[in-house]
């Protein structure tokens, strides 16, 4: 399987609480729901297509619990393509503390997680989709397990909250595969990791 991460962020990189005021208040975050007013038909259709095309899903613990509490609790998931995909396909969650997941079709990955994910990727064809899950995305990138990196950037500066990337971390070169902008200014970009970046070896001469 191709491991693809799909992440919604603000221009300043915040990914916390995009779906609503009470989605994730950890750390005293009080600016939740920033993405919903900006979501347009094009972005919604794109997300429905991405989720609908996934063969399986991989989550970090926090994102899994948010999704299970919302998408997993829908009375009739068939009315929504994202809910239909999430409720009908295998779900894997990386966690050391989750022992009895209630969302049907969930398996917990513990121990040598890198080996377990590599085995998942080798086991079948299709897309292994990682929604949100910032901490997990950072770990996957650092361990060279990401094949594709999808980023939806919303035209808003949230100003506080958990960001996708920390102040310090591994450096990764990304090759841009596709890019487009929706009617409300959401940029949808697909990248593929391409090793480490190149750095200039000397300072350019401004008088040259």
Secondary structure: elements and pairs:
Layout: E1 2-10, H1 41-52, E2 56-60, H2 61-70, H3 81-88, E3 91-94, E4 106-109, H4 113-123, E5 127-131, H5 134-142, E6 148-154, E7 174-181, E8 187-193
Parallel strand pairs: 1-5, 1-6, 2-3, 2-5, 3-4
Antiparallel strand pairs: 6-8, 7-8
Report on the structure:
- By secondary structure, the chain is α/β, with parallel strands linked by helices.
- The chain contains 5 helices and 8 strands; from the N terminus they run βαβααββαβαβββ.
- The chain has one domain (2-22, 29-193): Dihydrofolate Reductase, subunit A (3-Layer(aba) Sandwich), CATH 3.40.430.10.
- The longest helix has 12 residues, at 41-52.
- The chain is globular and about 65 Å long.
Total helices: the number is 5
Kindly report the CATH topology.
Dihydrofolate Reductase, subunit A
How would you sum up the global shape?
A: globular
What is the CATH C level class, in words? Alpha Beta
- Order of helix and strand elements from N to C terminus: EHEHHEEHEHEEE
The total of beta strands comes to: 8
Strand content: 15-25%
Q: Which segments are poorly predicted (pLDDT under 50) over 5 or more consecutive residues?
A: none
Helix content class:
10-25%
> How confident is the prediction overall: mean pLDDT?
91
The value of Rg in angstroms is: 18 Å
Q: In the residues, how many domains can be counted?
A: 1
CATH architecture annotation: 3-Layer(aba) Sandwich
**Class inferred from helices and paired strands:** alpha/beta
What is the terminal separation in angstroms?
50 Å
Described by strand count, sense and barrel closure, the largest sheet is: 8 strands, mixed
Strand order of the largest sheet: 4-3-2-5-1-6-8-7
CATH superfamily: Dihydrofolate Reductase, subunit A
């Amino acid at each position: 399987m191709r491991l693809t991460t799909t992440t919604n962020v603000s221009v300043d990189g915040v990914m916390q609480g995009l779906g609503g005021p009470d989605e994730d208040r950890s750390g005293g975050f009080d600016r939740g729901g920033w993405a919903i007013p900006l979501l347009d038909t094009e972005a919604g259709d794109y997300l429905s297509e991405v989720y609908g095309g996934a063969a399986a899903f991989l989550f970090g613990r926090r994102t899994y619990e948010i999704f299970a509490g919302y998408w997993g609790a829908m009375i009739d998931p068939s009315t929504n393509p994202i809910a239909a995909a999430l409720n009908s396909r295998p779900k894997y969650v990386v966690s050391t503390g989750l022992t009895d997941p209630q969302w049907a079709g969930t398996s917990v990955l513990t121990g040598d997680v890198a080996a377990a994910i590599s085995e998942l990727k080798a086991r079948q064809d299709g897309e292994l989709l990682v929604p949100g899950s910032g901490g997990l995305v950072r770990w996957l990138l650092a361990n060279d397990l990401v094949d594709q990196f999808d980023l939806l950037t919303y035209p808003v500066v949230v100003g506080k909250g958990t960001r996708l990337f920390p102040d310090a971390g591994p450096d990764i070169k990304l090759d841009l595969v596709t890019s487009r902008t929706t009617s409300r200014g959401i940029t949808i970009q697909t990248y593929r990791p391409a090793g480490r970046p190149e750095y200039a070896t000397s300072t350019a001469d401004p008088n040259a």
